[in-house]
Amino acid sequence: MKDMPRTVSPLLLFACLLAFLLSASALGQSTAPRVTVWLDRPAVDNFGFAMPLYVDGKKMVSWGPGQYFGIQLSPGLHAFSWTNAPGARQVVLSIAADAQSYLEVKYLSVAPFLAVSPLPADNALAAMTGLRPIDSNAAFGDGIIIPAQRLEIPGTAALNESETSRATAPAPKAVDPAPAIAILPSASAPRPPANAAATFTSDGEKLRELRTTLEGEEGLNSPRPFEVFWAPGSISRWGQMNLYGGELEVAVKVTDHLSFIADVGDHRSINGAVTTGSGFLTSGRVETLTYRFGPKFSIRPNERLTIFGHAAAGRTRVKGKYDFGDGFTLDALGNGLVISGGGGVDLAVKKWLGIRVVQSEYSHNRIEGGTWHDLRVGSGLVFRVK
Amino acid sequence: MKISIKIVVGLFLCCGLVGSLRVQSQTLPSRITESIDDDSIVLLQNTTDMRIGTAADEGRVSPDLPMERMLLMLRSSPEQEAALEQLLAEQQDPSSPDYHHWLTPEEFGVRFGVSPQELDAVVGWLAEHGFTVDSIANSRREIEFSGTASQVEGAFHTEIHWYASEGEAHIANAADLSIPMALLPVIEGVVGLHDFHVQSMMTLADGNHGLSPRDLATIYNVTSFWSQGFDGKGQSIAIVGRSNINVNDVRNFRAQFGLPANDPQIIVNGPDPGIVNDDEGEADLDVEWAGAVAKSATIKLVVSKSTTTTDGVFLSAVYIVNNNVAPIVSVSFGMCESALGSVNAAIGSLWQQAAAQGMSVFVASGDSGSATCDSSQAVAATGGLGVNGLASTPYSVAVGGTRFDDNAASWNRTNNIFSLSSARGYIPETVWNDRIDFRLPEGLWSSGGGVSVFWPKPSWQVGLGVPLADPGTTAEHHRYLPDISLSASGHDGYVIRQGGHLHVVNGTSASAPAFAGIMAIINQMTGQANGNPNPRLYALANQFPSIFHDITTGSNAVPCVPGSVNCANGLTIGYAATPGFDLATGWGSVDAYALAHAWKP
């Protein structure tokens, strides 16, 4: 251990400190005021089976005909869609700052394959009578309200306290012996504003603006402005030499799919078998320090998984202390360029924290006239910072 | 018009045919004008090795003792010699139609070898004495033959004895050889007839530093060649060897120092000697360092097993020249002229042929300073002044040694991780003389140089510092050595890999193949073989002295035993470095890149 490079410790300390500060920052979020929106899907539409519903790009539920649920949203524009496929048209509605709103959702056989209609409270209550709440395991998003049981016509059994609510907001309280309808959202709630007409858009810029206004609605796997990745890792020089160490990477978001990364890595040999720059196998110690920069492309197939690929280029510095036997020892140093390409998989744990399940990349190093081919593999934590 | 062309073409063809016929039929009268009578003999002077004088005579060898691969050297006629010298001059004269018009060994034999009749006569004489003729060189100037001790004694009128010298048993002829008077016009002598071998010009060093290939390339500006793609590609260098090597040593050497993979060719001439302990290092050094400078050149190690009568070094050299193995030859063996005796002429004859064939021969000048007749490991010189007879011919470049007069600023603090080198650039040099500079208790380790006693001063050996007369005389004019130098000191020895281990070695054995590597790149740049480099080297030294790193400090003086030959002051004998040419380092070392660019006239 006394041979550990002294330059590494400050680097790792800096990485830890940075990670701590960023994660603390991520924890200090505020919550915007909410309204409750009730959505129902009529018993009959153009699709007779369960369909997903995305709100603001996040999958909220997968529900079948004749189901309903509530959701807490912030007042303002929200986008509804049956998919989050890039470029898919979405229905954008303005949610008023009323206590409760009502939307009827129908799945169509033509684009945008979805109709979302604001309903007056009275009509909504009539339309929802006889519908059943969504299954608890079909709810994916935050803030979803699932009533305890089916809505009955007036005079049927009262609803009990919700047993299945996954949302933070409580289900409507049952007032026994009041009719079940009475525990639904208030019929006296204000009607939707006259100008709240549904519009269709696939304008990414508008959607981004929309998302910006919906900070409180950020999903588990939503891209954040910054990501900090720290992990132990290894470098393999094509079966000749293995180096072990770690790297710290900061990614700055440019778009939801594109970031720019800056990466510093330090790896060193831990056994005696090392190679010189020319690939000659001998004994000794080798340490590499790399600084790389480049673009990173990400896709998020679901609320937890992120698949990314990146390319980077930068500088590499290799220090070696070689023992060729017969009393021949020498120190050597090399500087050069490194070009890397690879990718990996992140798993979101919290909005501010993910696990990089694996990151693997090929590096082509050009050092002092020689070429090294490296395979890098790492796994670690991703701190996602606003 | 068509008729005219036909006439011209016809005339050319006729002239060519006539010329060809003239060459083919240029049969001078045989110089063997009398019948070969073994009772009418003539003594060949200096055909006894001087080392038997200090050895204990252990008596005659068994008559049946095999004596294999002896080399009978044949001589050209005086007319042929004159014509050959004329050709050699014209081959180096850009205004001559024969400029760089090199001969093949066969052409050389036709023009300058003995005639077929003479050859038949000599071969017949050998057969009469029961010898087996193994081969006749293409040059018609060497015959390789084998027999027994009694056959040798009978044919050459001598006795073959056992000798004990320095704990080793040797055989040698006890008296000078004699041959029939009738054969004297065509027989020069016999190489060897003893097993006192020439010495390798290297030794293990104990310095704290070692030169990697790129160090040397940086210091002598070979890297500028490399960066322009001139690294000896398409060229070849023949190494004279008498031990085989383990090719893995060369592979690992090259891999370790970042040189491209490039296995040497190993040409075994006759029986494979295998790994010869005392000579493997020399072969490794020569192969590794010739290929370290000319890193893409083909290095051809020619290996011949030494026999009881003939040194493998001579067998390899004869093979290389007579088979035109490569346009560049590196020789890192030597023996002082007085020890070689009549072999000096044979060596000169061989290198002369090489020059006519466009071959450039680089020979280590020696590691015993001015006292090449003494071992480099001697405590003090007793044999007087002397130079290496393998290097002293006018047809070979004698490569001496320097030492880097370095300091901390000469080297980077750490090594390049790819080439394991640390030299920053040229490092000023002084004469290699480890004995004097480092106050060693023994060993003469220093740059071989001085005055030939065998060869006269060549016409091209002129310039600032070249002696106008031999030192201590006013009218003696001999060949002066060395011609050029590169680092040879153990202070910054050359790293080699031998037997799976690394070693640092020193000696002009290293500087010779290194310079051969530079010459390979010059050949690549000029697009042709250059023959004997000396005329051009000396011309450039006079015309562009800045190409050379003139060594002006130090000397190759070595301690001498008071009262011994040349030890007039009872302390040291040798020569100091002076501005321009000197007898310690020649013209000094070179900026290889500048040398190559100035090479083509």
Describe the protein in words.
The complex is a heterodimer of chains A (386) and B (601). Chain A has 386 residues and is mainly β. Chain A folds into two domains: 8-26 and 222-385, Porin (Beta Barrel), CATH 2.40.160.20; 35-207. Chain A has three helices and 20 strands. Chain A has an eight-stranded antiparallel barrel. In chain A, strands 1, 4, 7, 8, 9 and 10 form a six-stranded mixed beta sheet that branches. Chain A is rod-shaped. Chain A starts with 7 loop residues before the first helix and ends with a strand. Mean pLDDT of chain A is 76; it is low at 1-31, 153-204 and 206-216. By secondary structure, chain B is of the alpha/beta class. Chain B has two domains: 41-75 and 114-191, no CATH class; 199-599, 3-Layer(aba) Sandwich (Rossmann fold), CATH 3.40.50. Chain B has 16 helices and 30 strands. In chain B, a hairpin with a 2-residue loop joins strand 6 (160-165) and strand 7 (168-173). In chain B, helix 9 (277-293) packs parallel to helix 14 (508-526), helix 10 (312-322) runs parallel beside helix 12 (343-356) and helix 14 crosses helix 16 (592-599). Mean pLDDT of chain B is 93; it is low at 1-25. The interface between A and B is medium-sized, with 23 and 18 residues.
